[in-house]
Design goal:
Shape: globular
Radius of gyration: 22 Å
Number of domains: 1
Number of strands: 28
Order of helices and strands: HEEEEEEEEEEEEEEEEEEEEEEEEEHEEE
Largest sheet: 4 strands, antiparallel
Length: 359
């Protein structure tokens, strides 16, 4: 290109004003149900396998499921009536909790087609719950220590380590990364409000709040960044906001216009997903990326938006796929959807939102 043409091209671009990047769009995939139109998502891995809980047909309670290769599967219980899945790793191993044959809830690991219970901190299998698993099979959750207290744990190779508390009686682990860093909530000394923590090499760090009483860490990424909820103080009441803890400080992510928000998951790129109240006080799923919180309902096709209201974004993988709980407009029940990022020009392609809940 000649010099004069290059100058002319630059002049045209400058005259046209700044270039505005197109908003990321998403296609939808309804993962189906176990029989009745009620599912709740919990986790998604890089292969697009997902887990959560749903209602089978008949007079039975919730059952943990594994969604893989386009099929949703009931993965059973520990001998009791119900089970709930809470997390999944790259190998498709699922963790959660289930009522056992004695009617007590117990942490489980589902691997290679079988569900096994995890023993508690004192060798007692009763009163425990698994909440997160990393890619090498380390698990966090919480388990009974006494008849009235429970502590967060790190489960490695068949051994359950007590992670302690922040000075109070109880703690819960909710997520774990590849370095075995754990986040969750733990009671503090004194009044004993629970605060979000980051536990590294067995040392539990209090992440604080936004001036309110309590906070909880729900998600952690490979870099040790944490998301969750933290109480704020305003208008004479305590209101929780989603937070991002990074580089030693807690950042308020704000809301979608309503009074509160919750951060549930964070990927390696620092993208956060969760749920927020809107100006109309309805809950909408959000994506926080590049310093901005965006209503995910604005990033799907008009056809999909007419069929579904995206309520809560419960998980996000490192490819940017998001697991979302939604309601179907004009139909009963709740659905779990996988949102896959695509270019704006191809946002309508591959949209499977036409699958409604009665199936």
């Amino acid at each position: 290109m000649g010099t004069n043409k290059a100058v002319l091209l630059v002049a045209i671009i400058l005259a046209a004003g700044p270039v505005v990047a197109a908003a990321q769009q998403y296609t939808l995939k309804d993962i189906g149900s176990l029989g009745r139109p009620h599912t709740t998502g919990a986790g998604i891995n890089a292969s697009g396998q997902a887990t959560g809980s749903g209602l089978p047909r008949g007079d039975v309670g919730y059952r943990a499921f594994l969604y893989s290769k386009g099929q949703i599967q009931d993965i059973g219980t520990l001998g009791g009536s119900e089970s709930w899945a809470t997390g999944i790793n790259a190998s498709g191993q699922v963790v959660g909790y289930s009522f056992n044959a004695s009617g007590i809830y117990q942490a489980f690991l589902y691997s290679n087609g079988a569900m096994q219970g995890l023993n508690g901190l004192l060798g007692d299998p009763d009163g425990s719950s698994a909440a997160g698993i990393n890619d090498i099979g380390q698990i966090t959750g919480y388990a009974a220590v006494t008849a009235t207290t429970h502590h967060a744990f790190l489960y490695t190779g068949g051994s359950m380590q007590d992670l302690g508390t922040l000075g109070g009686p109880n703690s819960e682990g909710y997520a774990i990364n590849a370095s075995a860093q754990v986040t969750g909530s733990a009671a503090t000394s004194g009044v004993g409000y629970e605060h979000a923590f980051l536990c590294t090499n067995g040392v539990m760090q209090d992440l604080g709040t936004f001036g309110g009483n309590s906070s909880t860490g729900y998600g952690i990424n490979v870099n040790g960044e944490v998301t969750g909820i933290a109480d704020t103080v305003g208008n004479d009441r305590t209101l929780p906001h989603a937070f991002l803890y990074s580089n030693g400080s807690m950042q308020d992510l704000g809301t979608l216009g309503g009074p509160n928000s919750q951060g549930y998951a964070i990927n390696a790129s620092g993208q956060v997903t969760g749920s927020s109240a809107t100006k109309e006080n309805g809950a909408h799923a959000f994506l926080y990326s590049n310093g901005h919180m965006t209503d995910l309902n604005s990033l799907i096709s008009s056809d999909a938006a007419a069929r579904y209201t995206l309520v809560s974004a419960v998980a996000i993988n490192d490819k940017g796929q998001i697991l979302v709980d939604a309601t179907a407009n004009g139909a009963p029940g709740e659905a779990t959807l996988i949102l896959t990022p695509t270019s704006e020009n191809s946002a309508e392609k591959g949209d499977d939102s036409s699958r409604l809940l009665w199936r």
